[in-house]
Inverse folding.
């Protein structure tokens, strides 16, 4: 309130010259410390951003507005319908497909279709599960297809190398497959039975027990 | 029209560049003529930019598809009202919008600047305002240069397309009319407190009141304005996400949301701490550091929006602008800090902290908590880059990280909101603190016990509700005491006049309440804002811990129950428009009573539209909103046989969050309403005491 009274100039010019002398090297030292403490992290952050901008120059597609990362496993009830056909380009893909796979070629097999991205944490969490279960079931008439979405090609390739995925994986660069399957987030999985119909849909990271159970049930069907 | 727009854009660029140079040169050479001509150039820039803005609007209204920007963001079928949204739907237009807003705010700020900044000795070059003008015009010059050279909204196509590409369907929502403009204005508006702070540092005034306090009033005013703009923008964005994105949530911890949230946090710290400087001459360095950090974070947000290197759902798309904004960010962070450290020895506090039990100390703790939240959020935002650098993999930080780390910090802040305003300046004694906090603590304890009896066991939720009761009851108690004291004094003032009747009995407390708020607007406006924060907290706690969600596929006629609701899906009608196919579902909502009977509450129509040209589906949730809970239905898919998938949510207390917005704005307006010049003379005779419960 009473500003003049509360706000005297106690350290006015009369006192100021004595300050640096009395404190010796302290003011400079303290200032230097603050400069270091604030400056180093700030510069590091700027350098990090510059480096990332440089790396990112190669492009890649970002996730669209409203895309979600599904952190928890959940089943989405769906009406069985024929799986929309698509052809996935996958340069250097595994035999017997080599560079492309069409979903319609896989009739007679149980197919798990998985949409993922390398930056998505739950996708990373479930990757070992998918690799493991695939090894168990690949000889029994089961195929996995991975569709990479909203990602940078380099990151996606690195991810596949690290996880050692042996099943076909390709990039849905324009998001067309995702649109035809109504994908809203990642990871999202569709299970397609031997007749080529989508029968179950799951969002979120898969656990091995549930995955085996689903595949066994689908294999038991004619 | 396009040519006019382009020409005026270049003129504005020239004017603002001139103004920046002339203003600083005028100050250095002590030339009144230069300083005044710089100001005139700044005012002219506003008018010129307004013409440029208007010509882009006209091009949109006339669907002038020769202009690439108009062709990309509108179409013939677009209703005219969406011109407002289309204007800033892309990089180019939004940059023009930012330049327009910055120039207007800067002009008002300079025009209304207090005398101790503008001309303390009567000479226009004697104050710090020329530096402030120079800094603002430098920032404006940057935006105008980028707009004119790299992202010109008036760029023409070599041919005239028959129709435009149309507006992004997600933007055709009421929230979009206000959310992006408020956020962009808030982010760029931080330039103004920054320019006042740096201007006064550069001018090194040596008035009798000590160094560095002259900018405080202007800094506080514009700090609060930008704070309110950011807060409204954030709330509106959440509301938009809640009603249109169709995942039932409202906050994503998306990097760009975070980028607007962080400067808001730092500004919150600033608008509290600046009061300490205003009243006590303390925290001078700290306040300038806070403004610098807030500005840096705002620049970081803009960088992120313009092709930043962090994965986000908001970006305008990768572009070479990213580098330009990164450079701007680097300059905008480094230069203010260099000035700050250069002038560091000038910024001594007028006094020391008297006691840790004082309002100053409470503000200091509040600052530390706010900054902690801001840095946790910043860490989460850049973590993908750090992980990429260290392990070669880019990993985004998910929601649990933010919730777990920021949740407790936010609870601590709410607690301080209850304690801080009760503490007097300088030094409190325990007895008075106990007296002030007894009633709020009792109310909080009562709420906690009641909730425990009702079976609430979730510790965070319990803490949240208890602290909300603590803060709200404290504020209400202050109001009650103030009203009572005022009524007593008013009765004394009007003794002898007869008042009868029920209406008169009611009029007295109402007029006393109004008078109370009016007598100390910063304080009571602040209380109203605090109440709005408590309302937001209720919404966050309610939805974080008590919401239920169910995903179902229903055939027409089928029902499903969730909590004590049941819905019956009646069917879906399809409507085909020029740019979209809409699926409008009809859903009856019933309330299930415990005895098994059910009552029809409403028939609601969630809808989902597919836009072939965007390959994009947009949903509009049907929400039945009450203060207790929202019943929320959003269609997820429409199957060919008429079945439809729905996500159904019951979100308790979220209503409070959306109502908080207008309350917050009201509180801000009251807090900022200009005070009449205070004359330290005896108070008017009619109201002899401006009674205040505690020292304000």
């Amino acid at each position: 309130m009473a500003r003049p009274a509360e706000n005297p100039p106690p350290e006015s010019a009369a006192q100021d010259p004595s300050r640096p002398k009395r404190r010796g090297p302290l003011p400079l030292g303290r200032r230097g410390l603050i400069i270091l403490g604030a400056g180093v992290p700030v510069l590091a952050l700027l350098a990090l951003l510059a480096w990332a901008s440089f790396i990112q120059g190669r492009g890649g597609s970002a996730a669209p507005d409203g895309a979600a990362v599904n952190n928890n496993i959940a089943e989405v009830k769906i009406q069985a319908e024929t799986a929309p056909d698509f052809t996935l380009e996958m340069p250097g893909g595994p035999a017997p497909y080599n560079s492309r796979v069409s979903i319609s070629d896989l009739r007679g097999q149980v197919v798990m279709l998985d949409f993922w991205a390398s930056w998505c944490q739950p996708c990373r969490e479930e990757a070992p599960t998918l690799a493991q279960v695939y090894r168990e079931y690949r000889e029994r008439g089961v195929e996995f297809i991975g569709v990479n979405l909203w990602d940078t090609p380099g990151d996606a390739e690195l991810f596949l190398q690290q996880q050692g995925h042996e099943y076909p994986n390709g990039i849905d660069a324009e998001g067309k497959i995702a649109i035809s399957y109504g994908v809203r987030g990642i990871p999202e999985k569709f299970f397609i039975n031997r007749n080529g119909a989508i029968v179950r849909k799951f969002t979120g990271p898969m656990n091995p027990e549930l995955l085996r159970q689903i595949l066994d049930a689908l294999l038991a069907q004619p | 029209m396009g040519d006019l727009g382009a020409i005026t854009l270049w003129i504005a660029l020239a004017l603002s560049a001139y103004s920046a140079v002339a203003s600083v040169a005028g100050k250095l050479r002590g030339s009144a003529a230069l300083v005044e001509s710089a100001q005139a150039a700044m005012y002219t820039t506003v008018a010129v930019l307004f013409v440029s803005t208007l010509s882009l609007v006209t091009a949109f209204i006339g669907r002038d598809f020769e202009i690439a920007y108009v062709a990309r963001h509108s179409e013939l079928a677009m209703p005219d009202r969406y011109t407002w949204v289309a204007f800033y739907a892309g990089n180019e237009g939004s940059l023009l919008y930012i330049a327009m807003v910055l120039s207007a705010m800067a002009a008002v700020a300079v025009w209304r600047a207090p005398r101790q900044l503008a001309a303390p000795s009567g000479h226009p070059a004697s104050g710090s305002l020329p530096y402030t003008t120079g800094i603002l015009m430098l920032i404006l010059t940057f935006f105008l240069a980028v707009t004119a050279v790299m992202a010109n909204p008036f760029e023409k196509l070599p041919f005239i397309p028959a129709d435009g590409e149309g507006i992004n369907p997600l933007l055709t929502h009421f929230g979009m009319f206000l959310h992006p403009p408020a956020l962009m204005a808030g982010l760029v508006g931080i330039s103004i407190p920054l320019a006042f702070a740096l201007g006064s540092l550069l001018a090194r005034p040596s008035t009798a009141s000590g160094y560095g306090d002259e900018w405080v009033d202007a800094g506080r005013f514009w700090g609060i304005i930008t704070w309110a703009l950011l807060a409204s923008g954030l709330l509106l964005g959440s509301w938009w996400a809640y009603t249109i994105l169709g995942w039932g949530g409202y906050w994503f911890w998306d990097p760009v949301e975070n980028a607007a949230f962080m400067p808001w946090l730092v500004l919150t710290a600033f608008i509290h701490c600046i009061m300490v400087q205003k009243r006590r001459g303390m925290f001078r360095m700290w306040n300038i550091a806070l403004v610098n950090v807030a500005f840096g974070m705002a620049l970081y947000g803009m960088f992120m929006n313009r092709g930043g290197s962090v994965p986000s759902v908001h970006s305008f798309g990768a572009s070479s602008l990213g580098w330009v904004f990164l450079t701007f960010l680097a300059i905008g962070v480094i230069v203010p800090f260099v000035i700050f450290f250069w002038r560091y020895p000038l910024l001594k506090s007028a006094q020391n902290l008297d006691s840790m039990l004082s309002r100053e100390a409470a503000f200091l703790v509040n600052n530390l908590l706010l900054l902690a939240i801001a840095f946790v959020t910043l860490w989460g935002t850049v973590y993908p880059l750090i992980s990429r650098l260290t392990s070669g993999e880019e990993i985004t930080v998910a929601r649990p990280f933010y919730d777990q780390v920021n949740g407790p910090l936010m609870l601590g802040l709410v607690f301080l909101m209850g304690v801080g305003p009760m503490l007097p300046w300088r030094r409190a004694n325990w007895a008075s603190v106990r007296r002030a906090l007894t009633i709020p603590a009792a109310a909080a304890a009562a709420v906690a016990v009641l909730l425990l009896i009702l079976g609430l066991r979730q510790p965070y939720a319990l803490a949240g509700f208890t602290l909300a009761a603590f803060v709200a009851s404290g504020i209400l108690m202050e109001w009650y005491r103030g009203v009572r004291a005022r009524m007593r004094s008013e009765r004394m003032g009007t003794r002898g006049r007869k008042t009868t009747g029920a209406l008169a009995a009611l009029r007295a407390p109402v007029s006393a309440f109004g008078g109370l708020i009016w007598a100390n607007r910063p304080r009571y406006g602040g209380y109203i804002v605090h109440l709005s924060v408590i309302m937001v907290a209720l919404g966050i706690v309610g939805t974080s811990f008590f919401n239920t969600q169910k995903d179902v596929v229903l055939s027409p006629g089928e029902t499903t129950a969730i909590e004590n609701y049941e819905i019956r899906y009646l069917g879906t009608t399809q409507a085909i428009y020029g740019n979209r196919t809409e699926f409008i579902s009809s859903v009856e909502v019933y309330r299930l009573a415990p005895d098994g009977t059910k009552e029809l509450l409403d028939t609601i129509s969630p809808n989902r539209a597919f836009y072939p040209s965007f390959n994009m589906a947009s949903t509009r949730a049907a929400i039945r909103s009450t203060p207790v809970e929202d019943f929320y239905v959003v269609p997820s898919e429409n199957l060919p046989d008429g079945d439809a998938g729905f996500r159904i949510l019951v979100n308790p207390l979220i209503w409070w969050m959306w109502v908080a917005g207008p309350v917050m704005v009201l509180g801000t307006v009251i807090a900022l309403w200009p005070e009449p010049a205070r004359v330290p003379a005896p108070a008017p005779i009619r109201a002899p005491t401006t009674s205040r419960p505690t020292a304000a």
Q: What stands out?
A: Strands of chain B lie at 548-554, 559-562, 565-576, 581-592, 598-604, 607-611, 616-620, 622-625, 629-638, 644-652.
